[in-house]
TrEMBL record:
Source species: Streptosporangium pseudovulgare
Pfam families: RtcB (PF01139)
Top enzyme category: ligase
Stated name of the protein: 3'-phosphate/5'-hydroxy nucleic acid ligase
Keyword annotations of the record: GTP-binding, Ligase, Manganese, Metal-binding, Nucleotide-binding, RNA repair
InterPro entries (UniProt xref): RtcB (IPR001233), RtcB-like (IPR052915), RtcB-like_sf (IPR036025)
Lineage per the UniProt record: Bacteria, Bacillati, Actinomycetota, Actinomycetes, Streptosporangiales
C-alpha cells in the first residue's frame, strides 16, 4: 500500500517525470490503497487499475466540500453527535471542522474514479481517532 502527499520518480511515455501526489495515492495496476471518507462514512480498500492518463493515481479521500472555518460556523455539537452516531470518536468543538457534512460524498467520489481503481472492500467505522 502507498501513502499520500509525496513525490515519486516515475516514467510515462518514455519520459522520466516527478509525480507529486498531494491528496492522491498511487493506483498502478494491482497497487493496493486506502481511500477514506469522513469520520463516519466508510473507508475503501482499493486496487489500482494502472490508468497512465491519470499518472497511475487516484484520490486519497472524499475531500472537503467546505473550509474548516465554514464548517465551524455552520455546524453545532448536536450536528456532530448526530452525524457520528454509532461511531466511537471525539464529539467536541475541537473536531467540529471534521464533521462528515464538511466532506464530499465518498460514494460519489468512488464512482467518479471507477476508471482508476476497483473496490476490494468497504469498511465501516466503529472507532475514529482524531488528533
Amino acid at each position: 500500500m502507498y501513502h499520500h502527499n509525496y513525490v515519486a520518480e516515475e516514467r510515462y511515455d518514455d519520459v522520466d517525470v516527478l509525480v507529486t501526489r498531494k491528496g492522491a495515492i498511487r493506483a498502478g495496476s494491482g497497487d493496493l490503497g486506502i481511500i477514506p471518507g469522513s469520520m463516519a462514512t466508510g473507508t475503501y480498500i482499493v486496487r489500482g487499475l494502472g490508468n497512465a492518463a491519470a499518472f497511475n493515481s487516484a484520490s486519497h479521500g472524499a475531500g472537503r466540500r467546505m473550509s474548516r472555518n465554514k464548517a465551524k460556523r455552520t455546524f453545532t455539537l448536536a450536528d456532530l453527535r448526530a452525524q457520528t452516531d454509532g461511531v466511537e470518536c471525539r464529539k467536541d468543538t475541537g473536531v467540529i471542522d471534521e464533521i462528515p457534512a464538511a466532506y464530499k460524498d465518498i460514494r460519489s467520489v468512488m464512482a467518479a474514479q471507477s476508471d482508476l481503481v476497483e473496490v476490494v472492500a468497504r469498511l465501516r467505522q466503529l472507532v475514529c481517532v482524531k488528533g
